[in-house]
Amino acid sequence: WIRENPSFISAETTPDPDEENAVKNNYSTAIGALIFSLVFLLGVPGNLFVVWSILARCRQRSVTTLLILNLACADGFLMALSIFFIIFLALRTWVFGNAMCKIVFYLCHSNMYASVFLITLMSVNRLLAVVFPHTLYRLITRKVVRRVILGTWVLVIVMSIPSLVFRDVKGVRFEYAFQTVAGFIIPYAIIITSYVLILKRLRETRFQRNFRSEKLILAIVIMFGLFWLPYHVVNMIRVCKGIFSTNNPITTSNLLHDIAESTRAVAAALAFISSCANPVLYTFAGKSYIKNNGFAFMAKLFEGTSSETETKTTAQKKKNKQTKCT
């Protein structure tokens, strides 16, 4: 939402006359700055603690743990970038130059895609562990997981290139639509499908009920969706605004423009909350370990994802043996 500020647009670009100020709403700006400040103070140390817990204290690293590690790296880096937006909202102008504007948005979008894709991989991994424990899930070795994660980072680096290329008004609208479809609608369609199949399988097998991994990942999925939904809604409002500006009366375009302008600072700040919420979520999920494990409580929580996978596989084997005996 900084990109439309005239100070960020190059001389070759013709700005939309309706977009002469990136932060017109004082109330929205103040709330946005406050939220960005809070997520910076909580998100950076929180995600660093998650990374430290996994690398220094976690002895058994399951697939879920490796994905959480990469998610914490993406979230922590995104939280560090929030300092730029805090300064922007405080000063009401971008003081870091056009090149830095491109770089910051490129990094933000890269980490946005990384977060949602890693969460999608978590859901697919749980699907394979629950529904196909003896076939497809056995193929998921540590080597395969590392290659998939590396491929995911390469993919998000490529997908974020439009942040550097599309700088005119039409390009920006294309990018908004692309972000929403590729970074929200498609991943969440995969996630919802995965959890529908998981829940169906859980109802069929008694021994697979009430495992912490499913609950933890489902909580991550729900929180990410809730906090990012307003951002993508604003994106689509801006896309619709561009369509109405050419095909309908100017009053409709102005109305959509006013709605987007008055809400985008808060919507962007809410999206950042999702990246600092995960460490808080892990803390609540692992609070039963705090008394006995101290600062290693989070590592103990993540190690549980390994033992749960083994428990499911062992239980399935026992069930198969009992079936054969009868």
Percent in strands: under 5%
Gross geometry: globular
The name CATH uses for the topology is Rhopdopsin 7-helix transmembrane proteins
Radius of gyration: 22 Å
Question: Roughly what percent helix?
Answer: over 70%
Summarize the structure.
The chain is mainly alpha-helical and 326 residues long. It contains 10 helices and no strands.
SSE inventory with pairings:
Blueprint: H1 26-57, H2 63-91, H3 98-131, H4 142-159, H5 162-165, H6 169-204, H7 212-247, H8 250-285, H9 287-293, H10 297-325
Helix pairs in contact: 1-2, 1-8, 1-10, 2-3, 2-8, 3-4, 3-6, 3-7, 6-7, 7-8, 9-10
Protein name: Leukotriene B4 receptor 2b
InterPro entries: Formyl_rcpt-rel, GPCR_Rhodpsn, GPCR_Rhodpsn_7TM, Leukotriene_B4_rcpt
Membrane topology: Multi-pass membrane protein
Describe this structure in words.
This protein is mainly α. The protein has one domain: Rhodopsin 7-helix transmembrane proteins (Rhopdopsin 7-helix transmembrane proteins, Up-down Bundle), CATH 1.20.1070.10. The protein contains 10 helices and no strands. The radius of gyration is 22 Å and the shape is globular. The chain starts with 25 loop residues before the first helix and ends with a helix.
